[in-house]
Amino acid sequence: MLAVGVCLVASACSSKGRTPLDDAPSPAAALQQLDTLVVAPEDVELRYYSSDWAQFKAAPDMKQGCSVRDRVLRRQGSGTKVKGSCRITGKWTSPYDGQTVKVESGMEVDHVVGTAEANRSGVRTWSKADKERFGNDERFLVAVSKGSYQQRNGQDPAHWLPRGHRCEYAALYVQAKAAYRLTVDQAEKSALAGVLRGC
């Protein structure tokens, strides 16, 4: 089992209206952390099954039918309320593109390090429980507009970066990889270093 701290309870996560990007490490700290990551080619031969990562588990501290995704949306929005069978209402500002979204259906919850990316980053010894823990760790889940989520499509920073909050995104990405002892490939590391040095 991985010895990492996981944010699975709302009281242990960022306060309402904030995203994990607001609490990202400084660029200098992230650069130091980046140098500790093992550089290795992506493990493309390990098959990926999204069901192994349990996206997203039930959130027992919320109303019946709510999931970790719902809890992230509630916490990271403004004026959010839970109605009916876990319908989240409120307003969100997507940090990736600055878009203001007023309907829950226009939002997605993004893994800063995507689960498919994690699957290629040295997890052959992980149990299903380890994967579920990663897939539901709210320290690294960000509520973003559906458009920016689809544009990213799980790509790593060598192939995609958000228009906004790039420094915070790169720093949080590195922190997530370090927290779970994930590897980076050389192109990924170079892209992250380039962003962080320019912050």
TrEMBL record:
Keywords carried by this UniProt record: Endonuclease, Hydrolase, Nuclease
GO molecular function: endonuclease activity
Protein name (Swiss-Prot/TrEMBL): HNH endonuclease family protein
Native organism: Amycolatopsis tucumanensis
